Amino acid sequence: MELLLQTLINGVLAAGIYALVASGLALAVGVVGIVNFAHGEFTMLGAFIAYLLFVGSGLDPLVSLGLAALVLFLVGSLTYYGLIRPVLGAPELNQMLLTFGLSVALQNLALLLFGANTRVVSPPYQGSTIHLLGLSFGVVPFASFVLSVVLLGGLYWFLGRTRLGLAVRAVAQNRLAPGLLGIEKERIYLLAFGLSAALAGVAGVMLSVILYASPTVGFAYTLKAFAIIVMAGLGNLGGVVPAAVALALAEALVSTYLPGGGGWVEAVFFLVIFATLTWRSWRAA
Amino acid sequence: MIAAAILLLALLLPSLPLGEWRAFLLDTAQFAFLTSALALAWDLLARSGQLSLAHGAFFGLGAYAAALSAPALGTLPALLAGGLVAALASFLLGLATLRLHGMYFAIATLAFSEVMRTLVLKAQFTGGSIGLPVQPAFSGAFPLGSYYLAVAVLALSAGVSLLLSRGRWHYAMAATRQGEAVARVLGVPVVRVKLLTFGLSAFLGGLVGGVYAMKTLFLSPYDAFGLGRAVEALVVPIFGGLYTTSGPLLGGLIIVGLETWLRLRIGEGYLVIYGLVLILAILFLPRGLVGLFRKGVGRA
């Protein structure tokens, strides 16, 4: 019973980061209409920013969180201007290949610069745990969960309550009408893509403490984020959180209860993608 | 023209006076042929409008199936078995994903290839993460055996690709790619076209994998099922020229040449070239290298 409870809690705590990364991807897919295979690489960049700041100037990851968000927002905007905007009108195949190329390039560039080693950001509180009602969990996962909830709350507030956020949603729903209302589509795209990258970057900073920074750390998150937004319905931001929780719980359960579960965790999100996609396609048929 | 020239060169290469670079050149050429063949297989599928990220998996399935069955069956039947296993896998995958379009199909194939790698890593008879030693082609009777096998696979892929760039089947694939609904209305059996193209493409991919296994004599899940394979398979045709035969042939030679040079110079991270080539080709060379020489010809 206690094991089950602990597993469930671990799952929920992991869901925070998943939801952050996946919300970013959902923004890119839903608003800009771009399937960004390089999304996880933005996460990887965030993780490396946190690592470099920590090693270089002893900056606490909590501080680098804001910096990483800013830098990644810029990176996202530049990516949009330089790479995405030219192919907005191109066939979907070209768009996917372009972001896939960006992903491969960023991954291997990081490999060239930093090598394949994993690097952990280890602030003094990294190992501390909280004990509550006979259960224990790490301070870091707990804090990152709380932060994720706060950030996601902020994102939903932005999208639901501010004029700019409503404009973003309007563009997601219809490509033509917002223009008639005086909303500049291109700027919304820019904002959405920048935000998308910033969310991924913030998640990366958290990963650098919980897991590690490495050139390939992001790619798994691209795939997990795909699994989540596919479950939620592509571009449907509202479904991201429950889908992230579902995926994280499934992974936690598999890793605890399946014999030799560690390796199979890697297969969970693919099975989720697979099952959802095929189920959807057959239901639609 | 280009295709014939490259194949002729491939056949003659071992008998040319290459001096001390001979072994290295032949090795590199052989990997380039295999890459080109895999790229041709990928391009076939792309002609029907499906972006596959699973060609690494077909390659790996073919490699493992050929390696495991070679001691019992002999070289050529084992290669065939590898191709068939890959084709069977693609058939099952195709049945499940037939109704998926565009990005959904790409994501599903990516998922498939990662699951396959996990399975091979976990299974016992594949050697798991330790890897699997492979018998050389024809039990090592001919030193150049695997080289000529690579040439043969390349010729086969190029032949199939040429054959399918004209005639009814070509138009059926192009119509399926450009507008599935319209193709259906025109009487194109879209489902059959997609499934058969997928199967054929995977079969060729599996063959390539088998020859690769008999060349490297050792397989590991990370190598054979790596995403790098899928990346190679799609970057080469895009760089060389999509939906053509000479494009992937030419692209394969150039890119593998670049890759080998880069690998010697910087080691890990040489895949960066694939990313950059992919980005640049999409942005500035949408019709590929071959497109530079063919002005005004439509892509259909």
UniProtKB/TrEMBL annotation, chain A:
PANTHER family: AMINO ACID ABC TRANSPORTER PERMEASE PROTEIN, BRANCHED-CHAIN AMINO ACID TRANSPORT SYSTEM PERMEASE PROTEIN LIVH. It is a multi-pass membrane protein. One of its GO terms (molecular function) is transmembrane transporter activity. This is High-affinity branched-chain amino acid transport system permease protein LivH. It comes from the Bacteria. It holds the Pfam family BPD_transp_2. Belongs to the binding-protein-dependent transport system permease family. LivHM subfamily. Keywords: Amino-acid transport, Cell membrane, Membrane, Transmembrane, Transmembrane helix, Transport. It is found in: Cell membrane. GO terms for biological process: amino acid transport. It comes from Meiothermus luteus. The chain crosses the membrane at residues 12-35, 65-84, 96-115, 135-159, 188-213, 225-250, 262-282. Its main location: membrane. The lineage of its organism: Bacteria, Thermotogati, Deinococcota, Deinococci, Thermales. One of its GO terms (cellular component) is plasma membrane.
Automatic annotation (TrEMBL), chain B:
Signal peptide: none annotated. GO terms for molecular function: branched-chain amino acid transmembrane transporter activity. GO terms for cellular component: plasma membrane. Keywords: Cell membrane, Membrane, Transmembrane, Transmembrane helix. It is found in: Cell membrane. It is a multi-pass membrane protein. Pfam families: BPD_transp_2. Its main location: membrane. InterPro entries: ABC_transp_permease, LivM-like. The chain crosses the membrane at residues 29-46, 53-73, 79-98, 105-125, 145-164, 195-214, 234-258, 270-290. This is Urea ABC transporter, permease protein UrtC.
